[in-house]
Inverse folding.
């Protein structure tokens, strides 16, 4: 974990939680700028309008419109401090629990409503 | 103690000018390292890779494209600047400025 | 020993997987209108697909990530949106065509109008995806897909003139109807080289947990499997040339394509045609739905796998469930399956650059492939395919307008 290339190695990388479960990708990276100090790699942003913002303003408008259909302002976003990074390899492992992340809201909501309704959905592997 | 926050995607691809105001390329990559300071271990940006061929260079790590770029490079005199963090002025993140002239900046490739 | 088993399975999967509604329909139309002449296009399409699949398979085996994963990771989200949208739209159209193919097969078998079959087919497909794991889906449809060998049997029974066929494997210019000829050539290429095929293959390699040890299996599966599959498509073209062309029949309905097997093989042939159409289109339906769900899940970083229970990858399972039912609607509402097929094939051909050109970068990236990067022959082939895809992009719309029956 020596030198890191932020575009090449970090942004858009697959994120996994403590249990190696996929929790999304690095949709944005926030840097802290302070006078006289090197920029600090501060926060990983998952979900929300971050992805849409990278494409353009028009995409953000589409994103908000789609979510408005479901009665929400925009997709739930998670901000994780970069200190939570445990390992950077093919995936970036974060020291978090998937359940604790706001950005996993849709996954959890769908799981609850799917599992309840349709037989054969629960369990680990097929 | 106040710090500003800037998004990585807002920096990538920004045109960088040198101390004389001349356009020297676009930010292609930010290189970071762990810095052990005040008992914390944070990743900090140690330098900026600035170059002209954003699409080629950022993804050129394999033989074929590298060969292509090198041939192209010799033909056009392209090179990449590696600007240390303290020689980059990000007070206006939309218009990054190198604090030295182009010929004083470290080159690569 | 286990390797040989995997090898055989891989070949079988590709044979059954190559032929589907697009290949059947375009090969039949090609043979009916131009005899053997368009065989070279099928050969070109088959070889291109074989190479593209080998490459995306290699990517997955070495980097343990799928092509969709790498498209986002190496090029960033802003670029990724382009192949995401293009593949999604095109695949949805092809998916609708495949469901149409299954529906027509059931109409021919039962006499019940194809529109009534659309939703039941989607529900059956959904059920198999919901309960089945990756092996079951992949191998089940592959085994059943072997019924497509009927086309080879049918062609042989009709005694094709081999020298003429051999000559047709070389590119030739048409003597009549130029616009129609090139339109069908583009449609055949779109039917042969479909992005969902190599995207699915790449995801499948990760589902099956391929490693560097599987590189030779990958080569044989992608190579031999597609060549055999392409052979079946050529058999369909030959049969159409021998059955439909002499009678001056231009294919306007799927029922006419049944003649390809009914003429040489009689009543048995008719049944085999229905079975082939049903199985190959149904298999393609499952593959395309999964490919689209994989693309979404991998692009956005969701958990995904056909080997996980649906509750563990909720966004992924919701995606394929919604997609398969959505795609059944146009057919249920009466869209003409054959027209849908033709349009989707041409659009597929036009969409190729966004999934072929990025491979030129990825297959040469030492960080991803280490020592398994492309050699110069593979790169040369890829450059040629890239240029071909750009030509198709430019030519597709004009040809659709000028030559689309």
């Amino acid at each position: 974990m020596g030198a890191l290339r932020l575009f090449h190695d970090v942004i858009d990388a697959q994120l996994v939680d403590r249990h190696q479960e996929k929790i999304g990708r690095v949709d944005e990276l926030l840097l802290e700028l302070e006078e006289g100090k090197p920029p600090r790699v501060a926060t990983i942003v998952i979900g929300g309008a971050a992805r849409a913002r990278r494409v353009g303003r028009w995409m953000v408008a589409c994103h908000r419109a789609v979510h408005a259909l479901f009665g929400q302002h925009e997709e739930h976003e998670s901000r994780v401090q970069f200190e939570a990074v445990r390992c950077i390899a093919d995936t970036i492992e974060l020291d978090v629990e998937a359940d604790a992340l706001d950005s996993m809201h849709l996954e959890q909501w769908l799981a609850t409503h799917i599992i309840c309704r349709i037989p054969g959905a629960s369990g680990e592997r097929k | 103690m106040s710090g500003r926050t800037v998004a990585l995607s807002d920096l990538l691809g920004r045109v960088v000018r040198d101390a004389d105001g001349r356009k020297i390329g676009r930010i292609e990559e930010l290189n970071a390292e762990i810095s052990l300071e005040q008992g914390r271990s944070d990743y900090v940006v140690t330098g900026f890779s600035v170059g002209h061929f954003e699409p080629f260079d950022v993804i050129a790590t394999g033989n074929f494209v590298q060969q292509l770029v090198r041939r192209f490079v010799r033909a056009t005199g392209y090179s990449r600047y590696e600007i240390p963090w303290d020689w980059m002025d990000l007070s206006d993140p939309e218009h990054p400025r190198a604090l030295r002239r182009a010929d004083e900046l470290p080159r690569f490739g | 020993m286990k390797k040989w088993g995997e090898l055989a399975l891989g070949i079988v999967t590709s044979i059954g997987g190559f032929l589907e509604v697009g290949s059947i329909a375009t090969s039949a139309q090609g043979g009916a209108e131009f005899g053997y002449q368009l065989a070279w296009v099928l050969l070109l399409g088959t070889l291109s697909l074989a190479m593209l699949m080998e490459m995306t398979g290699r990517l997955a085996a070495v980097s343990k990530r799928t092509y969709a994963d790498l498209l986002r990771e190496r090029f960033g989200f802003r670029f990724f949106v382009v192949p995401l949208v293009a593949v999604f739209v095109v695949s949805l159209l092809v998916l609708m065509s495949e469901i149409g193919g299954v529906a027509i097969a059931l109409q021919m078998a039962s006499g019940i109008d194809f529109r009534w079959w659309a939703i039941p087919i989607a529900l059956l497909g959904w059920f198999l995806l919901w309960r089945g794991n990756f092996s079951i889906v992949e191998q089940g449809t592959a085994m059943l897909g072997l019924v497509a060998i009927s086309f080879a049997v049918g062609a042989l029974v009709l005694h094709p003139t081999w020298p003429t066929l051999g000559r047709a494997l070389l590119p030739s210019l048409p003597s009549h109807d130029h616009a129609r000829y090139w339109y069908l050539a583009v449609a055949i290429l779109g039917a042969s080289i479909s992005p969902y095929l190599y995207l699915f293959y790449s995801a499948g390699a990760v589902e099956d947990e391929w490693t560097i040890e599987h590189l030779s299996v990958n080569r044989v599966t992608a190579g031999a499997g597609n060549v055999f599959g392409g052979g079946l498509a050529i058999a369909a073209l030959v049969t159409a040339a021998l059955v439909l062309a002499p009678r001056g029949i231009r294919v306007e309905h799927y029922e006419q394509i049944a003649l390809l097997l009914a003429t040489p093989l009689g009543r048995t042939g008719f049944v085999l045609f229905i079975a082939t159409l049903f199985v190959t289109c149904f298999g393609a339906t499952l593959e395309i739905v999964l490919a689209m769900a994989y693309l979404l899940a991998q692009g956005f970083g969701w958990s995904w796998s056909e080997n996980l229970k649906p509750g563990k990858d909720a966004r992924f399972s919701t995606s394929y469930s919604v997609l398969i039912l959505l795609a059944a609607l146009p057919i249920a509402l009466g869209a003409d399956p054959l027209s849908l097929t033709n349009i989707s094939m041409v659009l597929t051909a036009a969409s190729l650059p966004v999934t072929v050109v990025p491979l030129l970068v990825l297959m040469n990236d030492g960080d991803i492939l280490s020592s398994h990067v492309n050699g110069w022959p593979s790169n040369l082939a890829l450059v040629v395919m890239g240029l071909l895809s750009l030509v198709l992009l430019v030519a597709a719309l004009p040809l659709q307008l000028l030559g689309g029956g």
